[in-house]
Description:
Strand content: 25-35%
CATH architecture of the largest domain: Sandwich
Bound molecules: copper (II) ion
Distance between the termini: 60 Å
CATH topology of the largest domain: Immunoglobulin-like
Order of helices and strands: HEEEEEEEEEE
Shape: globular
CATH class of the largest domain: Mainly Beta
Number of helices: 1
Structural class: alpha+beta
Number of strands: 10
Amino acid sequence: xxxxxxxxxxxxxxxxxxxxxxxxxxxxxxxxxxxxxxxxxxxxxxxxxxxxxxxxxxxxxxxxxxxxxxxxxxxxxxxxxxxxxxxxxxxxxxxxxxxxxxxxxxxxxxxxxxxxxxxxxxxxxxxxxxxxxx
Length: 134
Ligand SMILES: [Cu+2]
């Protein structure tokens, strides 16, 4: 192998490592993005959590999200509750953010960026809601 070929190989390895590093950094962020490329501040599911008075709530009951449309402000936390025995999830723009929610579970999600978010359940395709963040 000629010297220039070695140099070229070295350069390729260096750029491959750089690309891998960038990809790893992006991959680490993927779970927290909301589909608009921005990071949502917090997302938690808890059986113990309570919904603060006056907070925006989307309830899962009778295989529906209620209300079907909700407007909130940027940075506001929306509380998702499950009032029935059927297992549900809260998928936000196609990403399952809540995991399985049993009856009584509360999942809260802070919408950190404006936009229209599609809320669905992984188990019940008929369950749909829209959250408009302004
Ligand atoms: Cu469901």
